[in-house]
Amino acid sequence: MSEPYEEIFAGEVTLRLPPGQRHELICSRLHTAMKATVANITSTRLLEPRTTVEMAHDTRLCPDLALVTVANNKLWLAAEIVSSEDHHADTVIKKELYETNNVPRLWMIDPRYGNVEVYHATPYGLALRSILAGREVLSEELLPEFALTMAELFAPE
Fold it and tell me: If you average pLDDT over residues 31-48, what whole number do you get?
């Protein structure tokens, strides 16, 4: 089990609870699949789970998965695994901060329902592109080799 950690939402320090065992299992599966995908992509770097990412001078987030560009260390894909004990921070506050800071891709992963909401940035904010569940495949056009079925991601231990 990991430790509690802090995030700063527009200047407000928030203590986040340590993720549970199911959360960590899903995070590990996601990172394993992503690590294999980005290994040969020199323009993208995969950060360790919950690495602090500075979005603005008063905003520091710790996404469960973060891909940044090597050239400028800018976050371009974030994934948040929603915790049932603390879902408001992920599904409302952090989603709004990702939108405000123009993060191109966001995945909201919800173990409660076994689904992933995929968002893409548009000139008008984040737009929901799909909700994946069951045997559907999570993929990303900017990462052609990445593919992870919902059944694999949410499989029991």
Answer: 96
